[in-house]
Structures are given as structure tokens and as C-alpha cells.
Amino acid sequence: MKALNSGEGREPAREPASYRDVQRQQLLVLVSEGMTKVKACQIVGVPAHVVSKWIANDPLFRSAWVAARMEQAHALADAVIDIADEECADQVAVMRNRNRMDARKWFTSKTSPADYGQHVRVDHTHMHGVVLLPAVNANNVRQIRLAEGGGEVLSEVQVKTAEELADD
């Protein structure tokens, strides 16, 4: 005869989440929804310096924090659109909304510059059609070679020295 409390046939009991884990999860949700770290810490009841220690010392929490901050930037960018769509009764409301939008745009551009920054990234690695000019050879003839295509000589250019130019 089997004992009733043997646990056979049932899923193993899950260990209840610790209070700290619940706080961490709540904090990550609030931040990912667009709330600031300080405000989220106040709501959850955790000092901000404790959260900073979690970020510094726990790699799993750090990666979750980075993901939450990326989601925060997206949420704030969405909030900018919502604020822009709000109706304003007077000029004061217009200025207030402009200030709210500018603050959110600035924050997202700093926390997620790849998505919301204003800097133009220029890639200088393109090498197709680039002409390399080697140093002047012994006969004062510069040979222009194509960077790709076997380096064949395309043309020869007569190069004059500074003294020769002065004589002309």
C-alpha cells in the first residue's frame, strides 16, 4: 500500500520564490514599462543603492536589467508619440508637453543611442574602386594601381620635384 503523502504521481513541489526575487521581478517590470529606477525602487521598497549592487554583482540580474532598460527606452519613445497626440487647451499645456517630450527623447538618446541617438555612423571599410597611389619610384614616375584586380598598372604619371617646379 502506498502512502498518501509520498508525492508519487504529482509534480515535484516548486520552491517558493524568495521575497528578493519577487522584488527584482517587480522592479524589472516597472523599469521596462518606462518608470525610472528611483521611482521603481520607491514603489517596490528597495533602496536604489541595493539595486546598483545587484546589477554589479549578479550577472543574471545585470543582463535582465540591460534588457529592461532597452524596453524602457522603447516605452519612453512610445510615450513621446502619446504626449504629442494629447490635446492642449492653452500655450502652457503645449510648452509642458514639449518639455515632457524633450526629456524623454533626450533620455532615450542617451540610454539607447543605437536606436534613438542622433549621431550618424559612417562606415569607412568599403574598398571597391579605390585607387592606391604608391610612393614615387626611382625614375620620378608614379604608377597608379587599382586596389582590386591584380594590381595592374593603369597609367604612369610623371612627377616633378619641387626644384623642377621652381625652374618652370
Structure description:
The protein is mainly α and 168 residues long. It folds into two domains: 19-116, Homeodomain-like (Arc Repressor Mutant, subunit A), CATH 1.10.10.60; 131-167, no CATH class. The chain has seven helices and three strands, in the order H-H-H-H-H-H-E-E-E-H. The protein has helices at residues 19-32, 37-44, 48-57, 59-85, 91-111, 113-116, 162-167; strands at 131-132, 141-146, 153-158. Strands 1-2-3 form a three-stranded antiparallel beta sheet, with no helix packed on it. Strand 2 and strand 3 (153-158) form a beta hairpin. The chain is flat. The chain starts with 18 loop residues before the first helix and ends with a helix. Residues 141-149 have low confidence and may be disordered.
Written as H for each helix and E for each strand, in order along the chain, the element string is HHHHHHEEEH
Mean pLDDT: 77
Query: How many DSSP helices?
Result: 7
Q: Can you identify the CATH superfamily of the largest domain?
A: Homeodomain-like
Question: How many domains make up the coordinates?
Answer: 2
CATH architecture of the largest domain: Orthogonal Bundle
Q: What is the CATH topology assignment of the largest domain?
A: Arc Repressor Mutant, subunit A
Number of strands: 3
> Based on CA inertia axes, which overall geometry fits?
flat
Spatial sequence of strands, sheet with the most strands: 1-2-3
- Roughly how many Å is the radius of gyration? 32 Å
Structural class: mainly alpha
CATH class assignment of the largest domain: Mainly Alpha
Low-confidence stretches: 141-149
Which percent band covers the strand fraction?
Answer: 5-15%
Helix content: 40-55%
Intertermini distance: 116 Å
